[in-house]
Each structure stands twice: as C-alpha cells, then as structure tokens.
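Thread: Newbie trying to understand structure tokens

Hi all, I'm a second-year student working on a class project, and my supervisor (Dr. K.) asked me to get a predicted structure for one chain before our next meeting. I've only ever worked with sequences, so writing a 3D structure as a token string is new to me. If someone could post the tokens and maybe explain what I'm looking at, I'd be very grateful. Here's the chain:
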Amino acid sequence: MTVTIAPYEDHAAPAVATLWNEEFGSRYPLAAELLLARCGPMPGTTTLGWIARRNGEVSGALLLRLPALPWFPLGVGFVTLFVVARRARRRGLGRALLERAVEEARARGYRALVFGGGPGHLVPGVPAEAPLATWRFLRQAGAVPREVFHDLLVDLTIPLEPPQYPAGVELAPAPREPMLAFLAKEFPGEWEVDVATAYDAGATVYGLWRHGSLIGFAATHRPGEWPPAPSLFWSTALDGSVAGLGPLGIAADERGRGLGLAMVRGALHELARTGARWTIIDWTELAPFYGRAGAHVWRTYQMAALPLDRS
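---
Reply by user tm_fold:
Sure, no problem. This is what the structure looks like when written as tokens:
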C-alpha cells in the first residue's frame, strides 16, 4: 500500500466532494461548486489543505482556515472539512492529515484548532451523523468536545402565527448602506461580512424599523441564491423549494421586548410568499426561541477543540 499526502488544489474539489458524500451525502449533499465557493481565498485568512491518496486514489482530505481577523479568537484555527474514506480507515491517513494541519498551525503561532465553524465554514461542528470512530479519533488526538449547535427547519405549508409589532414598528427591506452602517454599530465583525455577501448574492435583508430608524435586521435567502448562504448549503436534501433565514438580530437597547420573535415571524411570512416549502435557520443554540415561531431541530453538530500547546 502506498500513501501520499499532497497539498489540496482546486482541481481536487470534485474528488473531495465525492469523498464527503460517501460519508454524509444523504443528509449533507456537497457539490464541488459549493466546496470551491467556500474554500477559496478569503481576506485576512490563510487557507491550507491536504489530500491523502492511497494507491493513487483520493482517500482523505483536510481543509484548514487560519484567520487573522479581530472577530475570531486570537491564535485559533478552524478545520473546515476533514474526511477519510471508510475503506481507508485505520491505516494512518487521518493521523497523517491532522499532523500536517497541526504542524502548519503551530509554525504560524496558532494555539488551537477547532473542528467546525470559522471563516468559510461548511458545518458548525462535527455532524451528529459522524460515526463513533470519528469521536474516538478526535479524543485520542487530544480534542475536547465543546458546544452543540443546530440547524432548524420550518414547514411553511403549516399556517404561521402572524407577527405582532408595537405601534410605529414595521418590517421592510433595508437598503444596503444604511443596513451595513447599522451592523457596524450593533453587530461589528463577522455579520457585517455575511450580510454584505448576502446582498451581493441577491438576498433580501429586512430591517426592523421604528419611525424610520433601524432597530433590527433579518437576512432572508430565496431558493437558488448563489453563492448560497449557510442556511441553504444542504437544501437539496429536502423535497421542495427551500429558503433560508439568518443572520438576524435586534439592537442591544431594544432587546427583551418581544421584537426578535415578531421579526422572525414576519420574515417567515415574507419567505412563505416566495412559494418556498421550507425555511432553514442555520447554526443556532436557540432552538426553544425559534420553536415559538414553528421551527424544529433538523441537523445537530458539536464542535471540538484541539489544544496545540506542546506541554
């Protein structure tokens, strides 16, 4: 048996997507086009990756993001994708790939690797469908299980409870520049980038307005949006037209008044008008909150963190 580890290059994306789909494709169908869109160069982030070949066949892959952005923890890198073919496990491929990632991250001054999340993420953590061998491997490598996140699903064919807004408050599409200025004040960092990207992809970003002033926002994503928002990554696993919701938030001094729930309900009503069958709300710990608007848990993930301190 001959095993080689080589740097990941874009032309390997179809083979890597096939490898992923052999393990997760029924629930997380990954197209090569999505992989290319998510794993390309990003400002403020070093992107690295490796391919493991066994007897010339692509049998494993690891893609790594090393951000130097103020809204990510200093010295923390993120494993965007890590998969080894079942037929090639217990032969050292996963260990060899992880060793390359650890070596590069340490050499660049990073103190930890997190599995899931980060810039250009595909999943917020290790999918719940991952085999037990995955967690055994990660724990033996020294990784510690961390937060649990969910993707939620709303069936838009079931009547939705209407939003109840206080007098003077309304939900309406927001122009790009006022919205980005609002985000820079209330939600600086990653959501600014995400929402700017959503505008570029043709998303409708709703503002919650009080007498003409923004007090909240909700990004909505219509079926077929490209590049897709994270809420639409796995939409082809569902039958019917799929929309997405998020990110969203309420200004700090307006919270605790029921405005967030009203805004979610309003955004879902707007998405139902597009003819979508489903809405996905991705990467949240707030299942009970969104449940009040009709959402239920659809996908579950758990992060893991690997310290790189040699001591």
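A couple of things are worth pointing out once you decode it. Helices lie at 13-24, 32-38, 93-107, 132-141, 176-186, 190-200, 259-273, 287-291. The chain is about 30% helix and 35% strand. Feel free to ask follow-ups in this thread.
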